[in-house]
Amino acid sequence: MGAMKNDLCQFDADSLRCGRCGYRARRLPTHRVCRTLWEMAEQTARTQAERRIAVPPLRIGSALSAGLSFVGITAERVSRLAGGDCGCQQRANNLDAVGAVISGAVERAANGVANAVAPFPVSDEDIAAIADAMARNPGTNRGLLEPVSAAG
Question: How many other β-carbons are positioned within 10 Å of the β-carbon of residue 91?
Answer without folding.
Answer: 14
